[in-house]
Design goal:
11 strands; transcription regulation; LysR_subst-bd; single chain; WH_DNA-bd_sf; Hydrogen peroxide-inducible genes activator; alpha/beta; DNA-binding; globular; 9-stranded mixed sheet
Length: about 325
Amino acid sequence: MKNITFKQLRYFDALARHGHFRRAAEACGISQPALSMQIKELEEEVGIELFERGPRQIRLTGFGEEFAPRIRDILRSVDELGDLARASRDRLVGRLRIGVIPTVAPYLLPTLLGNLSRLHRGLDIHVRETQTPRLIQELEEGRLDTAIVALPVSEPALTEVPLFTENFVLVRPGEDEGKPVPGPDAVREMRLLLLEEGHCFRDQALSFCNVDMRATPPRDVLDASSLSTLVQMVDAGIGVTLIPEMAVAVETRSASVSVVRFRDPQPARTIGMVWRKTSPLAPQLMQMSEVVRRSTAALRQQQEASLHEPPQD
């Protein structure tokens, strides 16, 4: 197997992940026929088929399943050689692959990316927005350099750095403005609008309301795929929802809703950065964590102008 190329290994990994020639080709930035040819040449060099080709989906063969993790180890090791070169400099340079959860990305990224570009000229930033389990998987496989998620993630192979803590607020129809702020037990009895399963924010909101969906589900729950949809549903009078403070200015600017803080102890989450403990970029990523902290300052000012405190007894 002397003629296997690094490029072929990249293409194999892309096809194994996407399970589709067109999507894999788009991810690699090449044509579908070119990808197909490279995969065929790789299989000929290995001497065995790596993929089972169906009419609608591509699956790894049994040997392909054993082949894939070893290829990912090779790709990760090669990427880490590049990280070593970048780590020899005092600041972040070159490609930086950042993963961000959906309940943070739309609100933090505009400020953060501007600050990173200004402080680290020449930085080539690639952003991946998806749910925490996928981000952790891609981080461990070496496809991301760092991720911004809700802590803790409790993965032994990852370093966790807390960045900031933010409260959750109650969003209810505009006609409820001035009414007493309900506690968690009262919220549980309302029609509660939540993000769909898989979002960690959904689990955090249910935890505040003391809800175990399997044992004692709330009276009525509706799901949505984004915070924006949840707020618009509240505007339509369908129910109430919880959103993080950083989302208030963006998501409520075109909605006639009432936004109010809960009484203490308020529900909250801690947002942090995670990266592989073995990453040569750890010192530079620690520097980046300080940029993230500073980037939240402007957001907090917007939040304070958009929120109402609960009335005092």
